[in-house]
Amino acid sequence: MTLRSRLAVGLVTISIILVGPLVFAIQSLYGLRDDARELRDRDLAASLLLGRLREGLNDLRRQELALLFAKDAASRDAMDHQITQVAALVDSLRHFQLSEYSRSIATSIIQIANVAPAEYGAALASKTKTADSLSAHVFVPALNHADSSVRVAEHELRDRTAVRVNNETTRISATATWSIASLGLALLIAAVLAYRLTRSISSPIEELKSGMRAVADGDLGYQVEIPTNRADEFSQLADSFREMTRQLTELDKLKAEFVSVASHELKTPINVMIGYLQLLDEGVYGSLTPEQIEVHKTVAAQADTLLRLVKRLLDVSRFEAGGGRLEPRAVKVAHLADELERAFDVLARQREIEFSVQRGSDVPEQVYWDLDRIHEVLGNLLSNAFKFTPRSGSVELAFDSADSGVRIVVRDTGAGIPKDQLPRIFDKFYQADNQRAAGAAAGTGLGLAIAKQIVDAHGGTITCDSTPGVGTVFTITLPVRATRRTSASRSIPVSVA
Fold it and tell me: 317 and 333 in one domain?
């Protein structure tokens, strides 16, 4: 699935998940609306009808009393009309699930309707006792029974309505709870999907960024951990990255081979030039004029510089090709420290820099290193320390014991190295931006690269920590005994503090 398709599917899925609780809530609201309508159209209407029926019965009671007292045709007609209206209301009560009460009230109304003509006749004929007897024994009891049935029906209707209201309240609460729960669940699922979708995109991006940063820092062997079976654009990018690093590695090897061959080929003509310069200096070809002597000195100095550069290039090429052999032998650590202290004491005095050599009490007395190579490493580090430290500064060389051997620290209060440049200071030909602080000609950028190769060949590590304007600290950790081997026998990555 392509990245675009994955995004589309993910967004659609998240939308559906979030819309689900909304649909559920809407359906629940529709159900509540229907129940409210039913409550309004049935129970409320039944309550109103029972109220009207009770009022009708009360009116009928008043009309009956009016007939007994007035004893005229108008009262008779009014009472007859009221009986008809009450009968109509009772008939309407059957449609509201109150059929039992409707039948009971209807029976009473029928009794009233049957006895009413006799009561009319007795009242109009001034047969007061007969009319009162019919009223007391038939009309009023039937009317009271109907009124009692209406009140019981109202009471049951109120109870039924209360139960329905309680049920609807419970249903509303349950709907609200389920809506909130479903919304929370939907948000959780959507968040998980969004996180997975984001991770499926951000993880390979971060991996590619790390790979590009590693390549920029010179690590051409970095492997991006992006599966090749991904069916999206990141798989293609990973393949392109791997192909790029492969080609860059081949180019780096070609460059190293070219430097090695070129350095070797340059060494012979340079030696020939230096030989002829020595012959000129010895007067084999005659005496030189003062002007020629000055020119001779300049050319000789430049030839020596060129020869040192070629030798450094050959050293780097040998170590990279596995030809930089070590010759370990017994070395007294105290003697090594004394030699370095004597060698750099004059330079410290000339530059007015405080130079000290610290010797730990628990440092091994004897180690097995390639003395010339270690001299080269420490000499390079100390030379750089004096080079970048201003007057009145300090340089310190310290020997101390470590878990696996000896720790050597070169500390100065010089210009320092920017943090972003620390990972590349051991690369060939790389020079930090602090060269102008040295107040001298820039170097070749090979000294630290050779130092790293020598330390790695000894099975040790070299790290650097630096703060611009404060100083730099190089820390070397070496085993007590280095085996006789080439640099290709062991490859230890250099870490930078």
Answer: no
Domain extent for 65 = 3-193
| Rounded distance between C-alpha atoms, residue 215 and residue 491, angstroms | 18
Mean pLDDT of 454-466: 90
Number of other CB atoms surrounding residue 466 within 10 Å: 24
Tell me how far CA of residue 135 lies from CA of 62, 116, 141, in angstroms: 12, 9, 8
Farthest CA pair distance, the chain: 181
Which residue, among 280, 368, 386, 263, has the nearest Cα to 326 in the 3D structure? 368
Q: Exposed/middle/buried for 362, CB within 10 Å: 0-12, 13-18, 19+?
A: exposed
Verify that 447 and 478 share a domain, yes or no: yes
pLDDT value at residue 477: 93
Q: Bridge partners of 296?
A: none
Compute the distance between CA of residue 240 and CA of residue 218 in angstroms, rounded to an integer.
18
Mean pLDDT value across residues 105-126: 84
Q: How far apart, in whole angstroms, are the C-alpha atoms of residue 365 and residue 363?
A: 6
Place of tokens 């230096």: 274
pLDDT surpassing 50 at residue 486: no
The CA distance from 345 to 347, in Å, is: 5
**Is residue 74 packed enough to be buried (19+ CB in 10 Å), middle (13-18) or exposed (0-12)?**
exposed
Q: Residue 398's pLDDT is what?
A: 94
Report the domain count for the chain.
3
Say if 153 falls within a structural domain.
Answer: yes
**CATH number (domain holding residue 300):** 1.10.287
Decide which of 166, 193, 220 is a domain's last residue.
193
Residues contacting residue 473 through CB under 8 Å, at least 6 positions apart: 409, 410, 411, 464, 465, 466
Phi, psi (degrees; rounded to nearest 5) at 411: -120, 135
In this structure, are residues 60 and 83 in contact, taking their beta carbons and an 8 Å threshold? yes
152 and 289 part of one domain = no
- Are 398 and 474 a contacting pair, CB within 8 Å? no
**Tokens describing residue 329:** 């032998």
CB 207 within 8 A of CB 227: no
Tokens read off for 53: 């029926």
Point out the domain boundary residue: 300, 321, 342. 321
Distance CA 126, CA 13 (A): 90
